[in-house]
Write a structure and sequence with these properties.
The chain is mostly beta strands. It folds into two domains: 263 residues, Thrombin, subunit H (Beta Barrel); 110 residues, PDZ domain (Pdz3 Domain), CATH 2.30.42. The protein is 14% helix and 41% strand. The protein contains six helices and 26 strands. The strands form six sheets. Strands 4, 18, 19, 22, 23, 24 and 25 form a seven-stranded antiparallel β-sheet that branches. The protein has a six-stranded antiparallel beta barrel with strand order 11-12-13-16-15-14. Strands 5-6-7-10-9-8 form a six-stranded antiparallel barrel. A hairpin with a 5-residue loop joins strand 12 and strand 13. The longest helix is centred in the first third of the chain and has 14 residues.
């Protein structure tokens, strides 16, 4: 059965000409990024699927901890109602979640929640409703910042954790507004780390957190938290087992370390500039290494070089053809990258992460390249990432 990866778009309220508004679940792009074809370069909807009920017992200490986390965190988790201008009137377009990140009234959410909004209402847990202003948005990371002029009494910003310190099996909780049900807490574990998910552009979001904590339409932009109440991610996408948009226990959150990288720029400048290399590739596999007579077992392979991009200007090379090895067709002839600025590269993701977290547009990086069996160094000056790549 084919699975579908969906952004957790907010529930959309579609105005009907002769009836009250109704809920509709829009769908975005589907299909996870193929890890063998990444560019250096988002999640969504629920008709809940019922299963046999199970009683899960947790210890008194664990239960008390969950109650404490919810009591401390929920006041800073907000319900966002997004409006669009329809024939001169503001009409509810969708619902989402967000969380307060500082005492100045800045709120983090997903870009797909507020993209195209003409107005945003921010609803706090005490039912205070304040107008919000979108001050910045980054489609590449699916993050946005909304600001209110002041915070209700007692609302404290949430603390940010460290997504590099997470472990598979760790208990996590999500708080948000699925289907507009304010202040809903769900519990689960980290199912996997280091996932690559789609964004709102042709590029990818690296290091995403996979969780089985129930997240559904309306949870978009809400926090994924550890048991200390620290934000470790921003809930963004779910994968479903059909076209029903139901949560099947596979959800994804944008890691908090990307939040730390992007959000300060959104607050200060309204945007974040990502560095761009301009290549498509994957991790070198044993069949490619055999076909090209390489002793290297861990490296990145460049399949395609974007015309006019930084890599092309530096003379990097993509695949020149294919070859059959043990009945398997593999690309050959492309440059093999073994290090960036002296740091070893074992996969294509290593290049993505280095450029995302350690490099800036205008910076020159040194790639250690194996070409035609010989090693050489190639200097590449990175450029700002475009919204689309032709």
């Amino acid at each position: 059965m084919k699975t579908n990866l969906k952004k957790l778009f907010p529930l959309f309220l579609i105005p009907l000409l002769a009836a009250a508004c109704t809920f509709s679940l829009p769908f975005g792009q589907t299909g996870a990024t193929d890890p063998a074809e990444l560019t250096d370069a988002p999640l969504l909807p629920v008709t809940a699927q019922q299963s046999e009920s199970q009683t899960v017992f947790i210890g008194d200490d664990a239960q008390a901890n969950l109650i404490d986390v919810y009591a401390r965190v929920n006041p800073a988790v907000v319900h966002l109602t997004v409006y669009a201008n329809f024939r001169g009137q503001l009409v509810s377009q969708g619902l989402g979640s967000g969380f307060v990140i500082d005492s100045d009234g800045h709120i983090v959410t997903n870009a797909h929640v507020v993209q195209g909004a003409d107005a945003v209402d921010v609803i706090f847990s005490d039912d205070t409703i304040l107008p919000g202003t979108v001050v910045g948005m980054d489609l590449h990371s699916d993050l946005a910042v909304v600001k209110v002029d002041s915070l209700p009494q007692g609302v404290e910003p949430l603390a940010l954790g460290d997504s590099d310190s997470l472990a598979v099996g760790q208990t996590v909780v999500a708080i948000g507004n699925p289907y507009g049900l304010d202040g809903t807490l769900t519990r689960g574990i980290i199912s996997a780390l280091g996932r690559t998910i789609s964004s709102l552009t042709s590029f990818s979001i690296p290091q995403a957190i996979q969780t089985d904590a129930a997240i559904n339409p309306g949870n978009s932009g809400g926090p994924l938290l550890d048991l200390n109440g620290n934000v470790i991610g921003v809930n963004a996408q779910i994968e479903t087992g059909s076209t029903s948009a139901s949560n099947s226990g596979v959800g994804f959150a944008i890691p908090v370390n990307i939040v730390k990288l992007v959000v300060p720029d959104l607050i200060e400048k309204g945007e974040h500039e990502w560095a761009w290399l301009g290549v498509t590739g994957g991790t070198l596999n044993t069949y490619q290494a055999q076909a090209m007579n390489l002793d290297v077992t861990q490296a990145a392979y460049l399949s395609e070089i974007v015309r006019g991009g930084p890599a092309a200007k530096a003379g990097l090379r993509g695949s020149t053809g294919t070859q059959s090895v043990d009945g398997r067709t593999v690309e050959i002839g492309g440059d093999v990258i073994t290090a960036v600025d002296g740091e070893p590269v074992s996969s294509f993701d290593d290049i993505l992460l280095y450029i995302a977290f350690k490099a800036e547009p205008g910076q020159t990086i040194k790639l250690t390249v194996i070409r035609d069996g010989a090693q050489q160094e190639v200097d590449v000056t990175l450029e700002p990432r475009p919204q689309t790549v032709n």
